[in-house]
Amino acid sequence: MIKNILNKLPRKQAKSVENRNGGQSVSSSKAETTLKSNTISSSRITSCTAPVPNGTDGSISHQPVDAREDGTARPMPYEAQPSFNDVPTSEKQNLFLRKVSLCCVIFDFTDPTKNVKEKDIKRQTLIEIVDYVASASGTFNEIAMQEFIRMVSVNLFRTLLSQPRENKVLQAFDVEEEEPRMDPSWPHLQVVYECLLKLVTSPAMDTKLAKRYITRSFLVKFIDLFDSEDPREREYLKTILHRIYGKFMVHRPFIRKVINNIFYRFIFETEKYSGIAELLEILGSIINGLALPLKEEHKVFLVRALIPLHKPKNVSVYHQQLSYCITQFVEKDCKLTDTVIRGLLKYWPVTNSTKEVMFLGEVEEVLEVTQSPEFLRCMVPLFRQIARSLHSSHFQVAERALLLWNNDHIVNLIKQNRKVILPIIFDSLEKNASHWNQGVKSLTLNVRKIFSDTDPELFAQCSHKFKEDVPQEEELKQKRDAKWKQLEEIASSNEATTRFSQQKLR
User: DSSP E strands: which ranges in 112-183?
Assistant: First the structure.
């Protein structure tokens, strides 16, 4: 109780000698000085970064800073770290972390005169990291993996540069004729991609550890980079993603799902994406390795993504890779032939002759791996379309359709089903006798000879029927012309009546 009473009594302040400048006590001054010195020293020991505007484009660049005693910050000097050969083995891991941290600084590459020395230091540091990762004997620990993936993310995941486009420009010019835009930061990006490639292919990488940092979020951002207009970058992306797909089995379904979503957005919304060909090239390898029997999800992918990819106007950019994927599916499961052929017929071009030539080439590749039972299901609608192509006024279309008869496997399929196919295409073969192109005429004679030699009786029957149908076609043509003439007269009289009414109102 006495102790509680004494504690409530007011205490005398300790005497202190005031200094000359401000009247603060010596004891409080010492405490404040100690606290300030500890704060400054800790800020200097800890490496920190502060966002600094990067040039005129408004992007953010993280540059090393150092805290001053007055509370302001100043940029730290960007200096090269010693070489790995100059430090003992025990220090190489720490040096690796310092070099990786140094490479997290982003520079403005749109201005080649800015930070020339720092850019050179960073590039040289990245090259040293590539060599270190490639020659690493032991596995990377968790801190090294985390910092390395952070460095890769900071450098690669950015807003992609693209040329300004307007709808009129897109309609006036073909996408294939556009010059790709080369990224000015590629000399540094290339080395960063090389770093990641060396890590993914390195035996020192622990897959179980790496999958903690190569996450789904990382993969989404990484695959989005396929929209880069720089073909050099897309080539690296293709190689690295293929390696990741091979090493990280847990991520395989997710990678396929992300690629599917890109295809859906491209087909049904934008029809603009730079990396479709590279993504299809990866998928071609994936399809080639699919186990049999095919899962339902893979068949759905064929129907909903691959076949509709024939729809966009710029299909010629990626058609070779697309055709390979389609053929791989037919080789894996021959029952898919009917699905593929009818899908092609659904998106068959009407006015684009270049696209039609590509479709005919793809049909040949599909039929080359098709067996007779599957051919029976789709031959009637297919050869109705081929008949229209045979009689096309565009000589390249007609020529490409006639070249189908140069394939021995296709010729055998046609011969086995000639009683159905010849009546469908005979009219087109006969009409090609008056085709303006000599090459088309010559190929038509070769096709006629194949049928006449194989089944002269059938050929004679078709020829007789064609001669009987000619008068009927002429009669139908005359009726059609008369109908059009009548419609023109009605339109002219209506126009005259309208003009008279307008004049009368005036």
Answer: none
